[in-house]
Structures are given as structure tokens and as C-alpha cells.
Amino acid sequence: MDLKEFLAPPSEVARRTGPQDRIVFSSRVRLARNLRGFPFPGWAKKADRMQVYEKVAGAVAGLPALAGCFCDTLDKLSALERQLLVERHLISREHAARTGGGGVVLNRQETLCLMINEEDHLRMQSLRPGLQLREAWAELDALDSALESHLEYAFSPEYGYLTACPTNVGTGIRVSAMLHLPGLVLTEQINPVIQSVNKLGLAVRGLYGEGTEALGNVFQVSNQMTLGESEQTILEKLDKVLRQIIEFEENARTTLVEKNPKMLFNHIGRAYGILANAHIIASKEAMNMLSLMRLGVDLGMFPGVDRSLTDELFLLIQPAHLQLLHQEKLQAEERDILRADLIRNRLRSVSRPGPPLPAAGSSA
Q1: Domain 3-252 part of CATH 3.40.718.10
Q2: How much is the pLDDT for 62?
């Protein structure tokens, strides 16, 4: 099965909607599991990792939730295909770099993805658009229970599920959401918010997780510890914090519209001017400018323009997606030119922004 044909087109991905999706790009729940009797991937020989892959792939084959899924080893995927999965947040950058027993399982809807032999034998995750932590957890919990009837997990009555990293021991759960927070960035409130979130024992990371930048004003918020708290407690805690952040972002946008509309108009107007006219643009600059344009769309400054346009461009301008679009290997300089061409062409029918609409800054 060809992964590039299996993946949904970027236009379809961009049209996926969910609660609070003007601020929350996506919700994710991930579980870390290991198989009893096998060394963890970091210490395992290739033969052990391959045996784990075969066991997991065999268990997956009979599950209704993963009927018609994509399942293969990373060895059989090209570097481009692995990077496509990273850019869609379906696998980690670390997993993309692994071969020799590494594998991936993905359902048709792209809501369920399993990484085999990443840091742990099995890292399964559920992804949903918007703020849907409970829905993602329900789907993943059902999958975990189904798999556990076919696989024997490494489990301690005292500590819970055993994992390669001590911070994942216990429930093995990681709950996170990807947030678009340009209002807090523009009003210079983002650092106090991050500090407050960190004090609550939660982590704030960039676009592609730990050690990455918050490109396009996109931040990931997740729990840090899994031991000593139930899955439900972790979900409720994160959901409460996320709703507070959403309120802060909505209030920041309202403040910008009501008290500093010229500054806001200037930022969004300049972003549109660059995107609509640039002939060379790097990925980082394009992401940051598209973030501001997306904010303008949300604030009614681009009448008739749907948010799916900016969300699709967010994906299409990433290096692997851009390379796939042109069906050839591209150097960085070539990508910067083609990225600018793509954006200019897509914005050709989009008129320059008008002033922000006061009512658009209020909460939905």
C-alpha cells in the first residue's frame, strides 16, 4: 500500500472541524505500552524489535477499529514519507529517524496512529480536530483494551504500566492540545501564561513537540507526569487549563480589536502584503505570516475567506508536503521560491484585509 495515496489530501485535512477550533487546532491522547518479556527498544537488538513489530502487527490485523489501516515498517518508507507523517503530527521526529524494527499503523480517518518501537514498544495515539480530549480518550481507551486482549503488557501492580522513561510510568498517558495563540503573543501575555501553566505541572512546547519552536504562534500544552493520577484526573485537569487559555486568548483578541486596532491591522496587513507579493519566503517566515492572516480571518478582516485556506497552506508549505506537490527533490532555496509561488497563487483571489470587526473579537 502506498502511504502517499493512503493519506488524506491536505485540503480535506484543513476542512476537519471541531469544538473551539479557531484556537484549538487539535487534541491528542497518547498511551505508552511495552510488551512483557522483551527489552525496551533502546536496549533491544534488531531481531527483538522485529519480533515486537510482528506481534503488534498481528494483533492489529483483527481489530475492527483499524480495519483497512496502513501498516508497515519504517524501513519500507522513504525519508519523504516519514517526514510527511511528522508534518501531520502522526509520528514523532525521533520515530521518523528510527529503522530496524520501527513501524507505523494508521487508520483511514487519521484519528488513530500507532508507533511501534519508538522509545517504547508501542505508542498509540488518538487525534481529533478542536477541543475533543474526552472523545480522543474514549477512542484510544477502547483500542488499548482491544490490544491488551491480544498482547501481554509489561505491568507492575505497584507502579502500573512500565515504560522506558520514568515520567511515563503509571498510566502511560500523555494528553495534549495544539493551540493557536497570536492574541496572547501580540499583547505580550504569552510568557506569564506559559509560566502559570508550568507551575500547574503542565508542559508547553513548540509546533513539533519537545525542543521545537512555537512557529506560527502554535503551542502544545500537555501533562508532564503520569504516575499517581488516574487518566480521568489528568484529562479533567488539562481540559480545565485549556479552557482557561482559550478564554485568555479570546480576551486578548478582544483587547486588540477594541484598544489597539491600528497595531493589529498593521500586523495583519503587513503579513498579507508579504504573503501575497513575496517571491522567496522561508518556512519559518511563512508560518508566522500565515498565523497572522489566520487571526485576520477569525476577526472578520477577510470577508468570504474560510479558515481552511490558511490551515491548508500551513500544511502545504511544509518541506515534505511542498516536495510531494512538485514530485521532485528540492533544495532549500528552491523550496523557498516554490513556497512563495504557491502562496501567491492561492491568495490571488483574496482581497487585502479590511479593519477588524468589533463583534468578531468576542467569545463564541
Answers
A1: no
A2: 83
